[in-house]
């Protein structure tokens, strides 16, 4: 190439190099996280991952029962970029507790209150708690403990709770849910994110009634097209779940603004004097009560209508399930064998929870299902039958009364189960 031609391009080349030098390196806009330790009054060292930010708010995020998810780091970085500092703590890890329901429900609010105080003392920021699932109980206990500790200023905004599980325990299938005492003794404001396909959608009024007894101002935002744990899915999240997870940081930003706009009492609401009893049981639990709801009619996966009353005069196994529930899928073969063993006079009616007919049709091409599958598209029938766990099943006698229920998977062709159902089939009508 002629040297004179090359010289003509030098100014442009210099300009291009200058622009490249001005570009930030990859990841330069992402804050670096750091760690610190807070020791609570009981001497427990609480490890905290910090995503620093320059704004005047801090979100204290209690990690879920299953532990940290990749999304937590992502959310921490995104909120920090929005000006919200994030502290994340794993209480089960700090207390050396197994990751079980019982461990999660056993935690009091002392550690959370210590974290709230340390977050404000070290940064001077307003603090909002964030939790999901069962850690929501610990969050409420922590808010109340912070009030009991006698703070001098209302720097705690309240809590944002996603799909909170506030039950004392999972009740027997068909029994009413009871919520932990602190639900009725919460006076600080709350922001709830309720998945439209979540188990508690149709029980939300009961939750809100108890929360408001303590004086809490409660905001609720429905998250469409997803079920509980939508942003904590560890394998193969659905596109709707990914989209909802991407919206979460902005929703939490809105939550902080809303909670900051309402009164935040420093005094703790009194705990209820009476503790509510809950009916619990594992395995096949004997019952002898009228059926919990009237007859229902749903379409099956092929679009044909069926009613529960179509099976009057037979002993019926009514099973609520979903294809995303491994125990539900595991018990299907034993249900097929049970139906083959018991024959005439016995029927299985399964109700699928909030999945599409197309999905279930495809599922049934891979998994043999020898009984009708009715589609509970909005989850209302499951809610009417007080289903809080999957699978949940009811055995109805020939008069339509619920005689047994179970809120877990079992081997339905177990000889003891078969004998129990045969005894119902032999009863005079």
Counting helices, strands and paired strands, the structural category is alpha/beta
Distance between the termini: 103 Å
Multimer state: single chain
CATH topology of the largest domain: Rossmann fold
Main-sheet strand order equals 1-2-4-3-5-6-7-8
CATH class of the largest domain, named Alpha Beta
Average pLDDT value? 90
- Outline: elongated
Share of helix, binned: 25-40%
Global Rg: 27 Å
Q: Biggest sheet, in brief?
A: 8 strands, mixed
Low-confidence stretches: 1-28
What is the name of the CATH architecture of the largest domain? 3-Layer(aba) Sandwich
Describe this structure in words.
It is a single chain. Helix 3 crosses helix 9 and helix 6 crosses helix 7. It contains 14 helices and 16 strands. Helix 8 (204-213) links the parallel strand 7 and strand 8. The termini are far apart. The chain has an eight-stranded mixed β-sheet, sandwiched between helices. Strands 9-16-15-12-13-14 form a six-stranded mixed β-sheet. A two-stranded antiparallel ribbon has the order 10-11. It is α/β, with parallel strands linked by helices and 429 residues long.
Descriptive tags:
Thioredoxin_domain, disordered N terminus, 6-stranded mixed beta sheet, elongated, alpha/beta, 429 residues, 8-stranded mixed beta sheet, Glutaredoxin, AhpC/TSA, Thioredoxin_CS
């Amino acid at each position: 190439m002629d040297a004179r031609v090359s010289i003509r391009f030098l100014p442009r080349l210099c300009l291009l190099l200058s622009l490249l030098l001005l570009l930030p390196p990859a990841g330069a806009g992402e804050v670096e996280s750091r760690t610190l330790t807070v020791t609570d009054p009981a001497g427990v060292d609480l490890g905290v991952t910090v995503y620093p930010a320059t704004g005047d708010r801090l979100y204290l995020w209690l990690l879920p029962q299953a532990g940290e998810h990749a999304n937590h780091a992502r959310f921490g970085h995104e909120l920090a970029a929005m000006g919200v500092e994030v502290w994340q703590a794993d209480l089960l890890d700090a207390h050396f507790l197994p990751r079980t329901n019982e461990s999660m429900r056993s935690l009091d609010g002392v550690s959370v209150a210590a974290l709230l105080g340390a977050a404000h003392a070290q940064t001077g920021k307003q603090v909002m708690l964030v939790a999901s699932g069962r850690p929501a109980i610990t969050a409420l206990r922590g808010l109340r403990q912070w009030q009991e500790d006698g703070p001098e200023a209302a720097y705690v905004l309240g809590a944002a709770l996603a799909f909170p599980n506030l039950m004392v325990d999972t009740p027997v299938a068909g029994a009413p849910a009871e919520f932990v005492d602190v639900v009725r003794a919460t006076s600080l404001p709350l922001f709830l994110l309720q998945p439209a396909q979540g188990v508690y959608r149709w029980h939300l009024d009961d939750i809100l009634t108890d929360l408001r007894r303590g004086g809490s101002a409660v905001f609720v935002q429905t998250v469409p097209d997803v079920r509980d744990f939508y942003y904590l899915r560890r394998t193969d999240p659905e596109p709707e779940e990914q989209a909802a997870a991407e919206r979460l940081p902005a929703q939490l930003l809105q939550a902080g603004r809303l909670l900051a706009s309402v009164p935040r009492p420093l005094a703790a609401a009194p705990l209820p004097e009476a503790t509510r009893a809950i009916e619990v049981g594992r395995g096949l639990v004997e019952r002898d009560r009228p059926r919990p709801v009237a007859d229902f009619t749903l379409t099956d996966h092929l679009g044909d209508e069926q009613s529960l009353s179509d099976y009057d005069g037979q002993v019926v196994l009514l099973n609520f399930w979903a294809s995303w529930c491994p125990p539900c899928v595991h018990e299907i073969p034993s249900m097929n064998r049970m139906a083959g063993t018991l024959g005439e006079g016995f029927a299985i009616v399964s109700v699928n929870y909030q999945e599409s007919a197309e999905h279930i049709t495809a599922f049934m091409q891979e998994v043999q299902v020898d009984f009708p599958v009715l589609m509970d598209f909005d989850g209302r029938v499951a809610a009417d039958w007080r289903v809080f766990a999957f699978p949940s099943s009811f055995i109805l006698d020939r008069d339509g009364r619920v005689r047994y229920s179970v809120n877990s998977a079992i081997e339905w062709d177990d000889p003891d189960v078969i004998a129990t159902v045969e005894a119902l089939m032999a009863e005079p009508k």
